[in-house]
Structure prediction request, 1489 residues.
Amino acid sequence: MIARWRVVQQVADRFGYREPRFAEDEKNLEKVREGEIPLVSLENDLGRVQLRLRREGLSALGAIERINGIVNFQDKNVLDKLSGIARAVCRLLKDGRPIGTGFLVADDIIITNHHVIENPQDAVNMLAQFDYELDINQIPKKSPCFKLNSAKFFLTSTLDYNANIPHSGLDFTFIGLEPFGTSGEPLANYSPVNLDGNLGKIIKGESCVIIQHPKGDFKKVVLKDTAFFSETDTRLIYESDTLPGSSGSMVVGLGTCEIIALHHSGLPRVDDQNRILTKKGTIATPDTPDDEIDWFGNEGIKISKIIQALQESTLSADMAKIRDTLLKKTKVVAQQLSQPMPTGNTRPGGTVTPPILSPTTSSLSKESAMDTVFSSSTTGRAQFLITAPNKTNTMNQIETILKAIYGPGVTITLAMPGSAVEGEVELFAVQFPFSGNVNEEAQNLLKIPGIINAEADVPLLMNADTGFMVQGPSKGTGTESDILFDDGTGEWNESEFIRTYAESKYYKNQPELNYRRWNWFATNFDKLEKLPNVKSPGECGIQIVQFDTGFTDHSKVRGGYDLDHDFNFLDTADPTTAFDPKTIGLGKQPGHGTRTGSLLIGNRNTPITHEGNCGLLTDFNFKLIPYRIAETVIIINRQQQLASALDMAITQGFDIITMSMGLPPTIATAKMAKKAYEKGIIWCCAAGNEVQAVVAPAVYPGTIAVAASNPLDREWPGSSRGSAVDITAPGQAIYVPIWNASHQEDFAYGNGTSYATPHIAAAAACWLAAYQDVLSDPAYAGWKRVEAFRTALASSARRENDLPRKGFGHGMLDVERLLKTAPVPAADLKDAYNDWNEHAFFATLQGYGELAKTYWNKFHGWLFGNKRGGQESLEDDALSPFSKQLENSLFANRPSRFESVEPTGADTALQRFQLVNAILENSAR
Amino acid sequence: MENLFDFHFHLLFKHLITVTKNGGKFKLSENVKTTGLAQFLNDIFGGPFDSQSSPLQVSQSSLRLGVIALLSVEHAFANRVLHVFGADLSGVLPLDKEVFNRTRNGETTYYQEFKKQIAFHLTTAAELNKPPYQIEYLNRTTWATLSPDEVTAKLTAGDKRYFSFSIEGGHNLSDVPIRKTIPSRFPELKLKELQDRSDVDFISINLCHLSHIPEQPLGGFAQGLNKTSQLAFASEDFMPKTGLGLTELGKKVIKQALTHPTKPLLIDVKHMSVYTRLHYYRYREQLAIIDPEVERLPIMTSHTGFTFYTLDDYLQNKRFQSTTGSEGGQPISKVAPENRRIGRTNDLINKGLFGNPWTINLFDEEIVEIMLSNGMMGISLDQRILGASNPAVDSRRDRFFEEEYMARPEWEKMFRDGKLPGATESLFGGIAPSKQERHSMLLCLHLVHAVRVGYSALNWIENTSPWDHLCVGSDFDGLINPINGFDDVLQLSKLRGQLLKYLPQADKFLPFNPDQKALRYKNDGSVDAAFLNDVIDKFLFKNGLRFTVRFLHNWQPVPVEVPF
Prediction:
């Protein structure tokens, strides 16, 4: 046996120079514990991380989730496993005196340190004593002793490294045992722990357990958090908790319950001459008590190195057979680890199981899956939007984990960097190479610590202009299909207007052509100029940003745009101009922004035949700021485009956004609406067309939701309605500029909440200007500005109308009364989100989001004639397994299966969207 | 005694943000002085904590005219100023915890704090008016009835010191809690409030300062802090990351500043990003179309350095390397400009002199733009702005000029011994500045550069020259690292000597526009000493005096040549 001091000195001599690195790793371990860096980032060997993840038998995300959680939460079975393993540990006695620890690694072979048993002669008069431990009553157990038998098997590696001797310096000894104890007890009572020479049994930062006989005492297990934090080529370095006599103990990786090292020595701190230091900083001597030495940690010989030595050593035939037994586990595990990694939605602790379906619906699972447009990434780079705390540490953690899983190509950036607030939960755009189902992967992203919500940023069809309703009867009167053709051109349709609204008070007995601006009279905008407190919004610095398809050179709107501020948020185009190139073609219908914008800034007189109507703010020489967020009214490629537009509107300090486009409820739009509200931006949103349910962002508490009425002061049947609606404004049969089939400028009467929305934006601009003195008080800063407007809008609304009593907000916009309505005291305003359970909403949305988007896209695809195919190359793909289950549970009892290609599919899609939407809305209220 | 004008310094800022050891306030007659560990910190951060231009120091100095910048402490400074390098230094630094804590915790607004700054200056005005300070704050309303000659006479008579105020940073106009979610929407109304006040008057406002103000973005700012300072305060807000030129809010502030009927404020382009500055020049022209009165208001920068590049060259020939990426989820981009050697010293190890090519400093086109607007450029006395980098070895930078061969005798005379041909040899002694004086050379190189750019680009009628548009903008007490030898306002009296010594050398050695000399020379090649003295007069005082007279005359056209 080699004296302990010499072992420690040898360690100091060999590894003293590496102390700075150990210290560095030790610091990093502290950072992990402080939560500054993620556990997986401590490990610099990516191969080891991957193997470690594989050993979890889970998807990479599941594995990471588990590994990160292990520090604090262990499955109880770990105790059972450790208890089993611990039985293999024995105390080694020489002449009846304890000199070390060993453990059974095959039926009758133990391993210990070379410095405990240097040679076969040492083994004479040695015993291996098992069960030397206290029972639950603190009474020593009966502990049988077995003689050592070096003739059966003996293989050793010296303490000192000798370059001429292969595998020297590993300080291990394998030695055989007699099959029966000194009192006849069978060794077979004790199960060996088989060694696994493969990597990945532990990664840095994970905890390990040392089962030992310290100072020859009863068997001990240290239950404090002892982490593996550094290494050399042949040693693992872990935190210190052992005492002399522990030499030869087993070091178990807590995460895998595999033996990771043969404990070998403490690792002392040294001076620059590798002299061992005491805690006081003096030079230690062989007489220095152990507890006075300044230990850095412990070191153990890597099992992988021992197994390698075993494999490559020259042995007799008999011993070689035994060696095969010792190597068996290593081979088996190596095969397992070479299997492909499990994917999908597997749960920690279980094997990969198929989705559990109820017996009645399982047969439907394949057939009933809704087609999901754009559910898989074809570009090879998938885009997601996540919410997470905007903290550098959290972001670095998330990024590290994402890179560990998806490789170095991961990018993560704030979706709205300009308006982001440090420490708040913010929206982030995440991209990485990926080719699977992005909706499924979005759910997987939730397993990454720090990520609160996640959704795939897939293209969404938009609820903006229902001019494409060529497929059949719409929910509304369908008059848009009368004015607009598939390519976006239209035709003058005044005769139909007159026929339909002959009895309207805005037509009957009115001066010639006044009816073309009936929307003015319905909202009292015509009386605006006579009001004493009316001010030019532009001169008061009030601006309106229009989120739409951009501007065109239509004479009706020419000169009405603020081209110093226009911006294009589309991915591919020149960002500095929001010009809408009017790409004509099926599904490329342009000019939506022109039509909606004309209601704000349309010129009073143009040479266009059929000239009429003009912008509500034109007389103020108001300029509208166009933000181009979509190429066509049909589709928004990425919600990120919308986020960027909102971010710029906020940082520019704009007051009002008018948005005549709608989306299904999404995590991103919900975050955006809240942000705009907090920043005091009045975001006027179309309630939605044809879907009846209020769409996003109108549906959120932070925005102003606008429904549509007609010249009879009744509702436009196509208008969305619901408790989210704040106000109603003219939206059916509104006189707007178009191009006719000959591509000449013209006008037509069109429908949509798209047209109702600008009325509210105009009213907001006038009201903000009129009460600027009051509203500039800091008491009205932030959301109170929005709420002050909403309150005034509600109390001034015209209730004499023929709108349905519910679902259309407080009635019709009356701008005359609005301007007479001063802001209520700021202290009386109530945060709209007080009655909105945001947590529940996001939680529900996380689950139902994919279904909502899928039904939405399906219905709008039908509206836009998707069935005829090819317009936007919509790619069909299956729902993620999770959403399939959800769909089955929601619609299991529906009689007919849903097929997107059938005309009836549109109704089903709409019904399903409405149901999911209702679930979402109800979750928050 | 030399008369001096300083376009940008702080008088009572440190008195406001500091406390004495006993927790009390420093008296007006006391200088803020650090001791012990704080002094050590003061030294390693280049002296930002000790007074540089306190009332007492000012009273002992040659400073007669100038502009006092008022500002409230930004969140980025308050964020961790008491926790430098992770250690809590609140007990060490003589900073007033109250000020910093309420700023850090958002318990106040910048506007509130700014008004406290004004109030402090006004309440102490009576005391400061008396000897030894004899400081009087300038206000256009009280000078309006005097003719330019009378103004000049009054400003230069007696021992009085006259100082205007400026607003350093648009953040001072924010009336919402600091760095909370709520945005500030009416900074222009706050500015109007200040302009409408009769008890105080401001000559200018900086739209931006050193940090991002998320609750009130007015326009892009240029990164100003680097290295140790950045480390000390450790706030991400010092690194510009978002924004695109002037925001709508920024334009509202500019419009309000320039179009106030009786008390317009100049826009100080210092701290704006280069993009935002260009945006501003354009917006100013647009405003002038609507309101021609704007035209008479000059463009100015109160404490700048130069990049020594034309923007055209910089951009066209890509005199920089850039990288983009994200840090902590924030999209970022970084630009590393090419170093430009602009001069040399006699220090064997530390021979090269480089400008600071960071875009916080002005490009040549901007120098021209400012001169064209009849504007003024205060040259900073912050060594980092002028180009000094590493205090120990500053002459090694990544990219060197190519070596060239030189005749041995010329080399010995000029490069080894530092002698110049002609009369300058005897007049000014050694050519190259000593290690201690290298920063003076930097200052002179800046002056010569601007003048040469001006001469090259513009026509100058008799009695005008590019020298009319340059003055001192020390930024004392603005947490700066002053140039060597000019640690505080008292040292400014040494400037004339240094300028006499180094301006001719700078004119000799500045490699850009070498044919266009900034100084005048006699037929024998010697420097025209009268002209040299005249331009130094202008730089040190007369330009500032003229500018102040114009301010007090509310920027109405006045005879260009004010009789001095």
User: Anything to note?
Assistant: Chain A touches chain B through 37 residues (CB under 8 Å).
